[in-house]
């Protein structure tokens, strides 16, 4: 277990979680917000993307009230990203997440998850900032992140390919 906050638990990804990831990332309702409906993940693709031993990203499963409901990952920004975003001599972490069980959407779990992960990164990884780059059209996600203390700092035009179109994103940050 990485951390627990009430009914929320975040643990490291395990081998048997590949089936959950394949289920969630083949659901069009989830893919609308994460990866795109034109980019479903079959089991082999899950293994290639999420179980690459060379990848230093910390990959985790979100558990709420004893049920696996989603995925979160965190990583230290590399030198190239730090230069691009202007974070030269700082310990900056990025996070990405999704709740794969739609029945758990709009219940405040995303807010609890993001605030808990930020606290973990500040306390355990000594992050000076935590950043994300959500797509600009995803108002629900942006509202959640702003509620968690993130601020928009840089508009990123045509930053991420999603469903065949490069989408505008926002670089948002939480500062210690």
Automatic annotation (TrEMBL):
Pfam family membership, one: Acetyltransf_8
EC number of this enzyme: 2.3.1.82
InterPro entries recorded: Acyl_CoA_acyltransferase, GNAT_dom
Record-annotated N-acetyltransferase domain positions: 8-176
UniProt entry keywords in alphabetical sequence: Acyltransferase, Antibiotic resistance, Transferase
GO molecular function: aminoglycoside 6'-N-acetyltransferase activity
Keyword Transferase appears in the UniProt entry: yes
Name of the protein in question: Aminoglycoside 6'-N-acetyltransferase
Organism: Metabacillus niabensis
């Amino acid at each position: 277990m990485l951390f627990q906050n009430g009914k929320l638990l975040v643990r490291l990804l395990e081998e048997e979680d590949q089936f959950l990831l394949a289920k969630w990332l083949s659901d069009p309702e989830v893919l609308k917000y994460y990866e795109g409906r034109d980019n479903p993940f079959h089991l082999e693709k899950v293994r290639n993307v999420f179980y690459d031993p060379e990848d230093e990203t910390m990959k985790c499963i979100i558990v709420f009230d004893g049920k696996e409901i989603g995925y979160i990952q965190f990583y230290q920004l590399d030198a190239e990203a730090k230069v691009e975003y202007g974070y030269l001599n700082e310990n900056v972490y990025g996070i990405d997440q999704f709740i794969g069980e739609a029945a758990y959407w709009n219940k405040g779990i995303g807010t609890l998850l993001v605030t808990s992960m930020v606290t973990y990164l500040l306390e355990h990884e000594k992050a000076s900032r935590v950043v994300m780059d959500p797509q600009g059209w995803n108002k629900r996600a942006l509202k959640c992140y702003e509620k968690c203390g993130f601020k928009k700092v840089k508009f990123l035009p045509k930053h991420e390919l999603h469903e065949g179109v490069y989408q505008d994103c926002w670089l948002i940050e939480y500062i210690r």
